[in-house]
Design brief:
The protein is an alpha+beta fold. Helix content is 41%, strand content 14%. It has one domain (14-87): Double Stranded RNA Binding Domain. The protein has helices at 14-34, 67-87, and strands spanning 40-44, 49-53, 61-64. Strands 1-2-3 form a three-stranded antiparallel β-sheet, covered by helices on one side.
């Protein structure tokens, strides 16, 4: 069972506050990095959806009913791709910073 922590409560332990702050900082850093990857969004007749591909991260792609949803799902896929690579000790390519959306 996941322990819920209320940082506003007086009984929050210092280590809990430190862990939560570290997790927030890590998430912010990941978000900054992942938004810099090139994402190509296009309509797929075969899938009947917009597809968002991340060429710099092999196999990283997502889809959605709209361009915005496909891009949002791609951002989730980027985060999962990076987390998985780090978990297995695989290298994570630095973003090249090219265009972010092509539709």
């Amino acid at each position: 069972m996941e322990e819920k922590i209320n940082l506003q409560r007086a009984d929050a332990k210092p280590y809990q506050v430190k862990q939560v702050r570290a997790a927030i900082l890590k998430a912010r850093l990941r978000f900054k990095t992942m938004t810099k990857y090139e994402v190509i969004v296009y309509w797929s007749e075969e899938d009947e959806a917009f597809v968002a591909e991340v060429p710099e991260l092999p196999g990283c792609a997502a889809h959605g009913p709209t361009q915005d949803r496909a891009l949002s799902n791609a951002q989730d896929a980027i985060r999962l791709w990076i987390d998985t690579a780090q978990e297995f000790g695989d290298p994570v390519p630095e973003p090249k910073g090219r265009r972010l959306l092509l539709a």
